[in-house]
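Why do we care about 3D structure at all? Because function follows from shape, and shape follows, mostly, from sequence. That is the central idea of this module. The next example makes it concrete: a single protein chain, its amino acid sequence, and then its structure expressed as tokens.
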Amino acid sequence: MSNAQDPAHLHIREHTEALEQQILSPLAAKSVDATREHPMQECPFRTKFQRDRDRILHAKCFRRLKHKTQVYITSGDHYRTRMTHSLEVAQISRTIARGLRLNEDLTEAIALGHDVGHTPFGHSGEAIMAELTGHFRHNEQSLRVVQYLERDGHGLNLTRETMDGILHHSGKATARTLEGRIVHTADRIAYLSHDYDDSLRAGLLQPGDLPPEIYEALGRDTSTMITTMVADMIETSQGQGDILQSPQIKTAMDTFRKFMFEHIYQSEALSHERAQAGFVLRSLYDHFANHFDHLPENFRQREEKWSRQQILVDYLAGLTDSYALQLFREIFLPPLYSIE
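And the structure:
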């Protein structure tokens, strides 16, 4: 072999791309084939999908996830946030991708970016934004964040494969890549298991509260549940050309999801928190709709490009729980002075 063909003389990135061709399944997305809306000079060390992952990880929208609610608005140290949820989805997704010899880097990039468009106050916030605007879906907003809003309106210029996976991680449409389809189901595995775990910690559920068929199919503790669902995806999808689940596990997950919506996400126990979140977001929306000039200047400057309502949605959806509450206090509550 000549030096020109010796992998030791290739750039690290090119060597990694060559290894993908050798090791990954023929069905895997290959980084060398990935495309961007705006071409960039390639990194000598990282593939396109590795670069996507790093761009998301270092983005402000990802950092904000640590202060965005997953389920519990008044949370303690050990409840999940959107950031810990995203990291857990990335871990689960990578395990499945590795088991199927698919592209772990693409899977991880999609998983880390899938929730960056989520509103403050969890499920309640998304429902309130949809009520206020007539249409809001966090997967669409996540795509908007990485494509247009990050980096002061320039976007992250991610590959089309990563953006497609982010857009289609929820909803009825299917991602073009198998890696994107992994994240779609891994997201559900993560939030069902971990929201159940958080609900036990919060005292809203007790061990044994789930329907018996869920325990029979998935196991009784969250670790066993995750292992069961991940193993089923890998085993059922092998050689099928798609990401699949066995009928038994899919039925159990559907039952699990229905139970969590009825008993946790839409429960009476959390109704006061949902009402509080709704009051804060509606108040902020009405205020900035009537006082558009009170928005930060970098948002107001986008008026020629997008409608005022879209700019308002971009701003409010990007708020963390804590900053939304801080804004509410600054706008609507009088300052408190100590009396000496």
